[in-house]
Amino acid sequence: MQLRDRQQELAIAPLWRLGFRPFFLGGALFAVLAIGLWAAALLGYLPGWQPVGGSLAWHRHELPFGFAVAIIAGFLLTAVQNWTGRPGLSGWPLAALFGLWLLARLAWLFGAPLPLLLALQLPFLPLLALLLGRQLWTVRQWRNYPLVVVLLLMASCEWLLLYGLALGEDAVQRRGALAGLWLIAALVSIIGGRVIPFFTQRGLNRAEPAAPRPRLDLLVLLLSLSLALLFASGLALQPSLWLLPLLLALVALHGVRLWHWYDAGIWRVPLLWSLHLAYAWLPLALLALATWHAGWLSNASLAYHAMALGTVGGAILAMLARVSLGHTGRPLQPPVAMGWAFASLQLAVLARVLLVPFAPAAGLGLSSLLWIAAFALFVRYYAVMFCTSRVDGQPG
């Protein structure tokens, strides 16, 4: 039986053997392209490029629902195999799902008409939720059902954004985009709560990981979902003092989690400090958002970009670097250049939130170049891993 399974897997091209392979590679390449195009458009280098709805609508959708969702798909389609003990999506079904994601990216880039654009964009997240939910239901794994709920909520936010696009309503687009972004932050908090303590313990050879705190994790999830729903409703888009207790509670809870996971040894291990710093941007972004609601910060965009680049981008790059090594059978020792990639991404966040308010063009250009450098380094050193078999001869 094992021999037959092995022969069946060998008949599949390595790129299509498990979800992380095409989606991590495609997502990382798109991270380079998407930020490059957006920066070029903002700085006036692409006057003739007018995607459906304009470049701002494209940027609002494609970073959370194109780039981030690709990495989420790759992670979940791979992780569910470990969670359930059942084979993950592979072969032509995986290629078809990735093809749908890719066609949706190309359609918007190259000016497809709105009906075709919607037909390609809308199904992906529901399909991903269905695939994940079916795997979990088969073994009745209740613990991971919240992930399916978050995916369906993200699909609703994407539909809200695209509804705003069809109507030409900027405010509706913003509601969908920002709600989706905070739902991705909620996913980072769920997955981070599981992997950061474990990775820290394994990476530093400690006796055991930080003790789990399920009630704290549940409270963080519920408050995070509440914040996302407030953005979807539009209530969080205007300064409101009544939102301060929610925001400050989340700042405190995320801070407690970070303190609970912290070990001074992380600074010797790039795969660890990159992940801890990415998570640290989440309470910082929430604190910045709280100051905006209190009237002390003039631009809420700084908070959104601290979270989008620092938390989402930082967590994605750190997870890509570690998960890709583990699932291709390699030692958990990234190429030396990845340390520079992690540092480049942190500098990109600092340039976006600290330099842009004073020198917009220079800050945006520098931040974009640093982001592109970070993900280009990842692609340079990791692309071959996705296109070749595991080095240890195991399936996957």
UniProtKB/TrEMBL annotation:
- Record-annotated membrane-spanning stretches: 20-43, 63-80, 92-110, 116-133, 145-165, 177-196, 216-236, 242-259, 271-290, 302-325, 337-355, 361-383
- Keywords of this entry: Membrane, Transmembrane, Transmembrane helix
Keyword Transmembrane among record annotations = yes
Keyword flag ATP-binding: no
How is this protein named in the record? Uncharacterized protein involved in response to NO
| UniProt source species | Pseudomonas peli
